[in-house]
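#structure-requests
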Amino acid sequence: MLVLSRKENEKVLFPDLGIAVQILRVAGGKARLGIEAPHDVSVVRQEIADAEQLTEFAKRLTGSATGLSHEVRNQLHTALLGLCLIHRQLECNRIEDAEATLADLIKQMHATKLQC
């Protein structure tokens, strides 16, 4: 855990995540925080977080979750295999096969929402 001292209106940035935490006010033993985060990042107080959110937090804290989901990694791996196949087909001068493989790969990427 990183421990920081900040004054009012000072921020702590998480540049890789697009998140900023700002100290808005300190009074009566409490600090009021402002949190800027992308829309797809949940920000929840610990005392009202549900079990699923707490579990996800614990996974990420311990490093057992990665930046890419298992599904996305599988999609990227499939795309890489397709590109390798196209490369081999071109090396063997199988142009029509490579074109067909490329068309199939593009169709699959659009179907899985990976955009080329």
